Amino acid sequence: MIVFGGSELLLLLCLALASYIQATTGFAFGLIVMACVTALGLAPIDVTALLVGALTLVNAATALRGGLWRDANWRALGWMLAACLPATFVGLALLSHTSEDQLGLLQGTLGVCLIGSSLLMMYRVRQLEKPSSVPAFALCGVLAGLMGGLFAVFGPPPTFMMYRQPDRIASIRATLIWFFSLMSALRLVAVLWTEPVGESFVGLAVLGTPVVVLAAMAARRFPPPLSSQALRRFAFGLLLLSGIGLMVKGFF
Questions:
Q1: Fewest Cβ atoms nearer than 10 Å: which of 58, 93, 104, 175?
Q2: What share of the chain is helix, strand, coil (3-state, %, to 5)?
Q3: What is the pLDDT of residues 146-195, one digit of tens each?
């Protein structure tokens, strides 16, 4: 039986923060929850990863309701997903043939590259004058799939790509929420197909669902008072944190 205590309360606060930011920017739910759980030791990592997948879908359903799902850039979403799915299996295959030392070096190097690109974009936020080409979106999907297969981190490539598009923030946000929710659904199905559902996951999911729903609704009703450019800088700041996390895991 799950007892509601201090750890559960902290985890729910983390879920609320992550849900609000995800509904605002279109990404970072998993990044924030996993970072908080790792730093504070709130729950087992495997349970948390499964919880992130399930509650990402809850956040997406809440954030996209009321017709906002139609704002997605379907061209970008389709090509990224089409390239991401097979690339994920390639990443998983590479992972099975990569030593721990090689994986750490690769992960750390990727983190350094992500830190550099995020810092550049934070201070020189430029939107493209024209939408990116189909090959560019496909390449983005390939990179996301490889990163997802190797490191279980899909977010940086599509986030970086979408926040440079000449689209409205609502379109960028909807596209990213669709992308991450669909990938989370596939991962969740795959995990539940092979592993039994534990009591800890069920209890935390029951506690977390209303928190995630309310936080996503709050993001729609009370959005942060940020300009489009400031929100883009905030998004690249979150990518910077992701890069730091990868670098630390890889090199230390």
A1: 93
A2: 80, 0, 20
A3: 888 887 778 888 988 998 899 998 999 999 999 999 988 888 888 778 77
